[in-house]
Amino acid sequence: MNGRNERETPQIVLMTPEMAVALLEANQNNRPLNHQHVDRLANQILTGKWKFNGDTIKLSTNRDILDGQHRLWAIVEAKQPVETAIIYDIDPDAFSTIDTLRKPRSGADVLSMHGVTHHRVVISTALQWLTRWQRKCLENFRAPINRVENSDVEQAFKDNPGIIRAAERASKLRGLTSVGIIAFFYFVLTNRNPELAERMLYVMESPAGVSVNDPFFRLRAYLTQNQHKDPLMTIALMIKAANASHEGREMRMLNWRSQGNNAEPFPKLNVGHVQSAHR
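The chain above was modelled as a monomer; its predicted structure follows.
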């Protein structure tokens, strides 16, 4: 890789850990590493989610790494080769312009590539929560290790096309709470007990005519009265309301004590499957 002068034509290579180490050791302008970002990229490689996307490793005229240091360290950490592109002989003064105008891609952007034209943000949010639910990491969803990547959203969409209908149904409750969270839980509940899922949305849309002690009435009251709602609290209360409604119980209070001496564990959804899951 020495002595090249092909700035106009990037070279596509299979970057091995050994090649990455050689580039990193030759780098004289080491910038502070974000170790969480390196771990995140390494995890993408190890789980097979890394895809060649045309991004380049940019080397200056003196072989300093202007862009790609974290990717190279991730290859070293993962101990696996990765296909990537390298471009050489970039003017070192160009460093200040790298990544300054790039808009990060969102899960909604990924869905647009799959032909989704409506409720993209809602569907993306619902799929993120569905992924956390399936991974059983709701309680620690903020931990970096539990980050949901765009590739996870893409795969979850392929596996759960019924989420589109869930987003459409939940959109009627816009303004009550995060529509994405409602869509996620409605989808989960629909796959276990469709009638109960429909009843939840019906009561939350039109609470007139039901008892004030109806679990879903209580859920709606909580969402209406709390403008700044913690997502984990919202999901916990949705689960508790669904369990109570499924069991035919009324509730004078709907709460979840997540802290303090009498803290409760995160509730489990005790609504069994009444028919095969439809997606």
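The chain is about 45% helix and 10% strand.
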